[in-house]
Amino acid sequence: MIGQTVWQKILSSQHEPSMSPLAAATPVSERLHALDAVRGFALLLGIVLHAIMSFVPVPRLWFIQDTHPSVALGLLSFTIHVFRMTTFFLMAGFFARMSFHRRGAWDFVRDRLQRIGLPLVIGWPIVFTPMALIVIWASSLANGGPTSGARGWPPALPNFPLVHLWFLYVLLELYVAMLLLRSVIAWLDASGTLRTVLDRLFAWIMRNPLATPVLAIPIGIAFSLDQRWITAMGVRTPDQSLVTNAQAWIGFGTAFGVGWLLHRQIDLLRLLERRWFPHLLLAVGLILINFVLSGVTSSAPGAPRLPLSSATLRLVSAILYAPAIWISTFAVLGLALRFMSGFSPTWRYLADASYWLYLIHTPIVMALQVAVSQLDWPGPIKFAIILVVALPPMLASYHLLVRFTFVGVVLNGRRAPRETAPAAAVTGPAVP
Predict the structure, then answer these.
(1) pTM
(2) Which of 54, 129, 171, 253 is deepest in the core (most CB within 10 A)?
(3) Over 80: is that where the pLDDT of 78 sits?
(4) Which has the closest alpha carbon to 155: 134, 137, 128, 117?
(5) Weakest-pLDDT range from 8-12, 47-51, 189-193
């Protein structure tokens, strides 16, 4: 469990003036290593997810379809997709509030523009150019080429291929929205009464055994009203437009807000730690049911079709998929809090490296997918080869080009001292 001394320091710290008596602030010198590991884990899983995409047995899902698709890899991809981005945005909201109260408003804005806005503006042309060339390469193969959802080039605004960097764009939008909302609430609620009520309501929801279905209601409604939504899609990612779709705002905005509110009452994390096992069991069950409903298994030769109309299937899927998002997210957080609360040099190093690795990984993974796509080898073997070949040079590039350079200052807000071991602990807020 999280050490009692850590919790005592957190819960006995002074309340900020705008917080309710229920909400305990985190001391600036304290960091919860488990949550830092979760943030890095979510980004690293993105690399795994994209490496799997060519093996998922769904036609035209990815720019290249491997000649040996795998239902097992499809299940792994589906599982990661259920919780990964909700977990990431929850952590982003948690650490955003921590950084906001540590730095102050203007320094927070400067820091976010440096560490989120600058990588988006500079990184997009650097990664998009090789990605476009790889798609052209894949087009020469019978099972490759642009996906059906890809826009033409050059794009007509607001259509724009944000590719895997869309999460940076959405983060900037959420920062702006949260700062505006916080300013309005602070102006209307000078006495703090409203915030006290909101804190109590949020604490009541989190302590309730039905917390996950309640939190799932907004995104569940969004799923059920979207005539094009299918279970395999999850929350519709805004990677092809500068106008963020409603599903992304609802799904990821809710997660960001929950993370912000969790930091206001950090003791509520202990509930997630205690409930990790029932959350895990429910998550596994719901993910398996939703995977069957997604139709991925039906793509196999001779597999039975579900006897449901498309409208009924969408409604049932929305009812089951929405709570699966939150149950699996809380299961991941609870597992980390239960088993990863102590400082780990390895996880700290990977958490620091994860941002850079995620920014650069897509063209590398895509090129390897095309290179192995025609080989007459089992899909899981080729998937493993992609990761084994891609990760070492990516980690080396972080250690040599980022960790001790100005690039590390831009991405992580600090430059790691060379005199320490590569995995040594450094202080500072985690990058959301």
Answers:
(1) 0.88
(2) 54
(3) yes
(4) 128
(5) 8-12
Q: Is 427 helix (H, G, I), strand (E, B) or coil?
A: coil
Residue 159, SS3?
Answer: strand
> In this model, does residue 24 exceed pLDDT 60?
no
Is 421 inside any structural domain? no
Cα(9)–Cα(12) distance, integer angstroms: 5
Residue 237 lies in a domain: yes
pLDDT score, position 323: 97
Number of domains, the chain? 1
* 99 alpha carbon, distance to own chain's centre: 19
Residue 19 contacts residue 265 (beta carbons within 8 Å): no
What is the pLDDT at residue 149?
Answer: 63
Domain interval for residue 17? 4-412
Instruction: Tell me what the pLDDT averaged over the chain comes to.
Output: 86
Cα separations in angstroms, 382 against 74, 79, 168, 370, 374:
14, 20, 30, 11, 10
Task: Using alpha carbons, select from 242, 228, 279 the residue that is nearest to residue 82.
Answer: 279
Residue 118 lies in a domain: yes
Residue 129 placed within a domain: yes
